[in-house]
Structure formats: structure tokens, C-alpha cells
């Protein structure tokens, strides 16, 4: 009992020390600190903005790991030890009331960007007002003379301008926006393009994204870069050369096989229709939709039935996988005719697609991250051998890097890899000790 208590005290002191060091690093930093939040699009906006600003200065981008712990590590380790940094970008994620406020008060951003407000993490926030209040904490924490970049099409985001200290710049398709987005078009394989107009300037943007809904995070990043002084022509060129994030509508074109749109990082109910609309507008010799786990919704399991009703009118074949595969409410006629398939595991889905694929068909992989449906696409270019239905890891298979190793061998594989590294690092010392013993 005493040992446990001492361990807790030591851990608490460690957290306090890291926090103190992060606060000191923030106070001393001359970098422009940029915080980005929103119910959707924040990861893409953060990554794209970092890519654009890298042509304008030295950048550190913290994306996906969007917690207070990640922010402390970013402020202390990255800013203290990596030398001069011109821009620090941090994606701030909300997972419970007060989670963003703690990050915002530590970050004290020079620029705060908010993409949208939707009903997410329903059990914690319950209402849109609750989500909006949490996101607003980032704007409220702006440093004196700071800048807020807000979505003019979202009234919950636009209301954040009230009481904000600093300058407000808006973007969106609204005529009242400071930067107005128009002529939005994407119909895969035609990738997203749009025009951006503002007082005294205009640019046409071409992006690497397959769906129209990406105009919002793209515009958020582009407007922020323009406000920070990046020339419009450089902004356009860097946007066109951006590599989209893995598993967030990333396109994989196989040699002589299917084309995959891998959207397997998250699947909140509020944005599911966007992915389906993207598939509806796409052009392909055949379309298939694989749906796994829907996240962040309240009510009955009828959402899966609603989703199937939409998907069946878009795709030639709809496949449900995972623990909720039986909730499609698909008719017996659809089942008998092959319009709908219930396949419980990602491995079985992969095997089915490999047996039935035709060149050039388009396959959407849509799920929350727990099923790691990205493996279905990876199996066309790699020898995927980790097929456990749900491994419990939050990181993607690409980040984990062990998808070519059976899951039950992961621990021993990592242990052997650590041992090999130690041998490479200290082999000369071990060899010297061995020589001494022999003599």
C-alpha cells in the first residue's frame, strides 16, 4: 500500500514538473503558436497548414495525438530541444468537458482556428451548445492581439467571435465571409477544386482530396496561411502537393485491381452521409461500400438500417462487417441477390474482395478506427498477417507498423527488435567485456 502511494506521488510530481517546464518553454518561445479544433476536419486542416507553412519557415506540427499530455510534450521537448521554430501547430481534441480549456490555457495560442461544431462524444457533451462551449475555450485563450479563424457557415462557430480578444477572420460559402469559397467540385477521379475570393485577392485551388467536403478543412488551412503572410501562389502550389492523411479518405490505386478510398479513422453518425455522398458523385465501373462501426450516436441500432438504405442506392454491393454487421435491416431479396453481404471479420472481407475484384472498381472502407479496415486496402500492397478483429490499439495500422506480423507475435517481435537495437548500440561494449573475460 505504501509503495502504491509513493508511486502515485512520484507520478504526480513528474506531471507537475513536466507542466512547469512546458509553461516556461511557452513563455520563452518566439514562435507563432496555432491551435486548431473542430468536430471534424481539424486533423486535415492542421496537417495541410503545416505543409503550407513549411515553405515559409520552420514548423512543428502536432496532429492526431491531441491531448494535454501531447501538448506538454510538444511545448517542452520539441520547442526546447529542436532549435528555432517559427510556427507550432497543435490539434486540440475534445473528449470531455474541460479538456480543451486545459490545453488552451497552456497553449495561449496566437492563432485559433475552428472548423465546425457537431454533436460528438454525446455521452460527455449531450448537446451542440455543450460542444460549442468546449471548442470556444480555444478562442477565449487567444493571446492579446491574437487572431481567430472561424467558419462563417456554422452559427455555433461564428458565435465564438462574441467577446473574443483579438482580430476575427471568417471563411466559408456564405456571402458574408471575409474569404468566400465558391465553385466547389469533386467527382472522383476528379479531385477537389474550388475558388477562394477575398477583398483584394483571389486564387483557384486544386487539392488531392476525393470529396467535396474537404473544402472546409482545406479553406481553414489556406486562409490561415494567407493571414500569416504566405503568398497566394505559394499557398496554391503547396496545397496541390499535399499528401492526405492516412485513413482519412486517402486514395489507394492498386495495379490492375480496385481503387480504395480508405476512410477508416472515425465514423461519427453526423458525418457518415458525407462519405456516402462522395461515393454517389464518384465515377467508376463498379462501386462497393464496406461499413464497419458507426460511432458517436444515441438511440437504437436503427442507424445501421438507415445507412444501408442510403448506401444500397449508391453502390453495387454493400458489405457490413464487425459486431453490428447484422443490423443492416437489408431485405432477403438484397441478401439473395448479392446486393448486401454480412461478413463479420475484416479478414473475410479482404478475402471476398480479392476473389471478386475487377480492375478499376471503387471501394469505400468506412468505419471507426477500432476495426482497422485499412488492412483491407493494405493487403493489396503488403503481406498483411495481423487480422485480429479488434486489437484495442488507437493508432492506425500504418503508425503501428506491425500489420505484417501476426497479432499474437507482436510482443515477442517488439522485444526482439529492442534487443537488436541494444546490441547495435552497445555491441562494442559487450564485445570488449567478452574479450576481457577470455584474457
UniProtKB/TrEMBL annotation:
One of its GO terms (molecular function) is ligase activity. The keyword Signal does not apply. It comes from the Bacteria. Residues 36-224 form the Mur ligase central domain. Signal peptide: none annotated. InterPro entries: Mur-like_cat_sf, Mur_ligase_C_dom_sf, Mur_ligase_cen, MurCDEF_CellWall_CoF430Synth. Keywords: ATP-binding, Ligase, Nucleotide-binding. This is Mur ligase family protein. It comes from Mesorhizobium montanum.
Amino acid at each position: 500500500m505504501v509503495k502504491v502511494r509513493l508511486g502515485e506521488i512520484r507520478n504526480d510530481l513528474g506531471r507537475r514538473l513536466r507542466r512547469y517546464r512546458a509553461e516556461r518553454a511557452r513563455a520563452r518561445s518566439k514562435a507563432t503558436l496555432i491551435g486548431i479544433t473542430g468536430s471534424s476536419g481539424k486533423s486535415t486542416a492542421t496537417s495541410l497548414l503545416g505543409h503550407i507553412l513549411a515553405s515559409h519557415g520552420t514548423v512543428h506540427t502536432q496532429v492526431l495525438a491531441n491531448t494535454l499530455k501531447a501538448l506538454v510534450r510538444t511545448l517542452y521537448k520539441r520547442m526546447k530541444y529542436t532549435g528555432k521554430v517559427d510556427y507550432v501547430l497543435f490539434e486540440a481534441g475534445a473528449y470531455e468537458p474541460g479538456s480543451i480549456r486545459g490545453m488552451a490555457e497552456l497553449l495561449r495560442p496566437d492563432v485559433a482556428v475552428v472548423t465546425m461544431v457537431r454533436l460528438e462524444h454525446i455521452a460527455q457533451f449531450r448537446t451542440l451548445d455543450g460542444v460549442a462551449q468546449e471548442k470556444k475555450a480555444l478562442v477565449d485563450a487567444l493571446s492579446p492581439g491574437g487572431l481567430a479563424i472561424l467558419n462563417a457557415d456554422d452559427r455555433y462557430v461564428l458565435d465564438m467571435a462574441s467577446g473574443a480578444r483579438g482580430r476575427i477572420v471568417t471563411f466559408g460559402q456564405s456571402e458574408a465571409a471575409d474569404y468566400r469559397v465558391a465553385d466547389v467540385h469533386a467527382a472522383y477521379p476528379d479531385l477537389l477544386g474550388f475558388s477562394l475570393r477575398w477583398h483584394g485577392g483571389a486564387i483557384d485551388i486544386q487539392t488531392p482530396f476525393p470529396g467535396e467536403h474537404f473544402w472546409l478543412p482545406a479553406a481553414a488551412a489556406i486562409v490561415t496561411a494567407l493571414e500569416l503572410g504566405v503568398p497566394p501562389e505559394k499557398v496554391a502550389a503547396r496545397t496541390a502537393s499535399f499528401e492526405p492523411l492516412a485513413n482519412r479518405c486517402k486514395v489507394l490505386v492498386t495495379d490492375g485491381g480496385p481503387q480504395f478510398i480508405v476512410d477508416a479513422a472515425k465514423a461519427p453518425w453526423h458525418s457518415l452521409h458525407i462519405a456516402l455522398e462522395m461515393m454517389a458523385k464518384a465515377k467508376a465501373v463498379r462501386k462497393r461500400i464496406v461499413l464497419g462501426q458507426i460511432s458517436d450516436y444515441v438511440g437504437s441500432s436503427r442507424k445501421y438500417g438507415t445507412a444501408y438504405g442510403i448506401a444500397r442506392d449508391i453502390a453495387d454491393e454493400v458489405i457490413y462487417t464487425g459486431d453490428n454487421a447484422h443490423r443492416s435491416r437489408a431485405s432477403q431479396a438484397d441478401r439473395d441477390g448479392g446486393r448486401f453481404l454480412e461478413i463479420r471479420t475484416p479478414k473475410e472481407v479482404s478475402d471476398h474482395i480479392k476473389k471478386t475484384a475487377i480492375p478499376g472498381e471503387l471501394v469505400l472502407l468506412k468505419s471507426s478506427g477500432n476495426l482497422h479496415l485499412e488492412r483491407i486496402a493494405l493487403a493489396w500492397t503488403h503481406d498483411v498477417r495481423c487480422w485480429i478483429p479488434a486489437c484495442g490499439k488507437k493508432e492506425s495500422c500504418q503508425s503501428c507498423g506491425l500489420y505484417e506480423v501476426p497479432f499474437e507475435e507482436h510482443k515477442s517481435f517488439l522485444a526482439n527488435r529492442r534487443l537488436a537495437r541494444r546490441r547495435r548500440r552497445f555491441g562494442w561494449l559487450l564485445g570488449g567485456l567478452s574479450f576481457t573475460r577470455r584474457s
